[in-house]
Amino acid sequence: MYLGPLYYYLLAPALFLSGLNPVGPAIANALIGTLTVLLTWFAGRAWFGKVAGFVSAFFLAISPVAIIYSRSSWNPNPAPLFALICAYSIYQVWQNQKPKWIVVTAISLAAALQMHYLCLLLIPFLGLFWFLSLRSQNKLQKSALLRSSALGFLIFLLIMSPLVLFDLKHEGMNFKAFKSFFTDRQTTINLNPAKSDRFLPVLETINTDLYLARQDLDSVWPLIIFICLVFFALVANKNKSATYLTVIWIAIAVLGLGVYKQHVYIHYLGFIYPAVFLLLGLIISLGVTHKSAIVKFLSLSLFVYLTFLNAKFSPLWQQPNRQMQITENAVDLIIKESDGKPFNFGLIAKQNYDESYRYFFENKKAKMIRGEAGVTDQLFVICEDGDKCQPEGNPAYQIAIFGPAKVIKTWQINHLKIYLLKKTP
């Protein structure tokens, strides 16, 4: 399934301003992550108070998962921001009778769907509160909401139109993939939630990866305590509307992912990151403002413990892998050794593609020729697996298409081994 182009439209200015340097989009993603933290603080403060807003934003800011998915350029990374805007705007429609906010909901939903298709789970969440809004309003308010909803729907279709046009051009490629996903249920989903055994693993993933800094404590007690604290928040908090919205936001995600038969990666949950930390902020704020000294002590202890855990296992302590610098150094060496002549290029790697290297070749206007466009007199091969590679006779397409060849020269750059091959007589 192919995502829409909105992510690339959003990142294009950053790439342009950085002079086509890949760091530009990465910086833009970091700024989006920072904006998500600020909006989490704003929403938490508006819904649950100053303490909850601070705690929610604080833990989102230091979360190892949030940091990891905010420091590089990848389509799912902005999903938390757009999901949060969806939730905040539908709350404005539902509780504050501001129907024009539904347009913001439609725009942010269209954006979220183009970041990751699991944001489809936002639709039942938003649809529920739209229906509650419509049901609770008088005739005049309903009319205003329906007009705004119609406008929002048209804008939604406009934003999604490139994806529709893509599908029309490519014989319904995405439509067929969606159809296969929902009809071939033996390997993808179980549409009977009562028979699913995946709900607990999803909750454990939320608990361990988002609250416990990706540390599996090998115990169900943290999960049981968390569920009890959620019930405490539902009972004790005065703004029950915002609490219900936050809990239902998470619950629909758990239900949706609970019927998914395959592994649930943490970035699948991006559209509930803000909700998870808003709930944590609410729970701790209720505790520290409670009359009981014991409850205050336990809440402060939880705050300190989670802060310690997230700080200790923060990716900020890790040394950078300098992947871009190493890639560019390898490209520069190949350009130099090619002696200004055309060359073919291939990559041997278990978990990477050659496009990052080709990006620099094209940006530096190197005379690199794709194998399908023509075979030159020299082939450069980069091996990312050290001495385990065998470039001669390798089945990788860009290497195999070159034909029989022999290694003439080798170089080493960090973990990369670079080979020059020339045709055998």
Structure description:
- Keywords: Cell membrane, Glycosyltransferase, Membrane, Transferase, Transmembrane, Transmembrane helix.
- It is a multi-pass membrane protein.
- One of its GO terms (biological process) is lipopolysaccharide biosynthetic process.
- It holds the Pfam family PMT_2.
- With 425 residues, the chain is α+β, with helices and mostly antiparallel strands.
- It has 2 domains: 312 residues, no CATH class; 101 residues.
- The protein is built from 17 helices and 4 strands.
Topology readout:
Elements: H1 6-17, H2 23-48, H3 50-62, H4 64-68, H5 79-95, H6 101-113, H7 122-136, H8 139-169, H9 173-183, H10 199-211, H11 221-236, H12 240-258, H13 273-288, H14 293-312, H15 323-337, E1 344-348, H16 355-363, E2 378-383, H17 397-400, E3 405-413, E4 416-423
Parallel strand pairs: 1-2
Antiparallel strand pairs: 2-4, 3-4
The main pleated sheet reads as:
4 strands, mixed
SS-derived structural category: alpha+beta
N-to-C span: 45 Å
- Anisotropy-based shape: globular
In short:
The chain has 425 residues and is an alpha+beta fold.
